[in-house]
Design goal:
The chain is mainly α. The protein contains 15 helices and no strands. α4 runs antiparallel to α5, α9 packs parallel to α12 and α13 runs antiparallel to α14.
Length: 235
């Protein structure tokens, strides 16, 4: 049984790591492995505990950098929840993304932190052109989370992603193709106009020679043309 974290206020990075260790459930790593998560540096600390620690300790850029540099799986997720997006530099983004070693670290950092920085849209375009698996995934994950989180963005910002999605869909690597699919589906659920554009892209992908692209197109269409989505968008 894990020990629930005590009430905390502005603990040091080392203290936070000790807390993560004391709250760990080592047998959780078996379940993480079944979901394709790299557990080489994992503790097995439950995510609700990690989020509680982040909420109670508050934002601190310096602590986040130290947590990341520990290399511990859960500490890196905690870093993404602890950092201040206004303090994140381009150098930091490029360093962290180059060190992604698991799909969940990639997704957590992008959705908790990177999508809130001023370089989010720029990095979508840059990273999707990178051949490193988790860097490329990060670019498409950023598209997906921006489509959900950036409520004020106009449709034009997302239309520019369609050619990138068409190109990226040919990547057969599982962690990349699933992120491409996620991006296409989330963009297509923002508005009726983006839905129409996403449906066109999905149908075009179904006609390509790439097995990955055909899967992405077919899977995305099931959601984009569903009654639930059409009703939500007033189509």
């Amino acid at each position: 049984m894990s020990r629930p974290p005590e009430k905390i206020r502005k603990m040091s990075a080392d203290d936070l790591i000790d807390l993560l260790r004391s709250s760990s459930v080592p047998e959780n790593k078996d379940g993480m492995k079944r979901f394709g998560i790299n557990v080489d540096n994992a503790l097995g600390t439950p995510m609700p505990v990690v989020r509680k620690i982040a909420k109670e300790n508050g934002k601190d850029h310096g602590i986040a950098l130290k947590l990341w540099d520990s290399g511990i799986h859960e500490a890196r997720i905690l870093a993404s929840l602890t950092d201040d997006p206004m303090m994140v530099t381009e150098e930091q983004m490029n360093k962290w993304v180059s060190e992604f070693d698991s799909w969940d670290i990639c997704d957590q950092v992008c959705s908790n932190l990177f999508d809130k920085t001023g370089r989010a849209y720029e990095k979508c375009m840059e990273w999707t052109d990178d051949e490193r698996e988790f860097v490329k995934r990060a670019g498409f994950v950023m598209m997906a989370v921006l489509a959900v989180h950036d409520k004020k963005a106009d449709d034009e910002k997302f239309k520019m992603f369609f050619p990138v999605i068409m190109k990226g869909a040919a990547d057969e690597r599982n962690f990349v193709k699933k992120a491409v699919n996620w991006a296409l589906r989330q963009i297509g659920k923002r508005s009726a106009e983006l839905n129409a554009g996403s449906v066109r892209v999905a149908k075009a992908l179904k006609e390509t020679k790439s097995k990955s692209a055909r899967w992405i197109g077919s899977d995305a269409l099931r959601e984009l043309e569903s009654e639930r989505v059409r009703k939500k968008l007033g189509i």
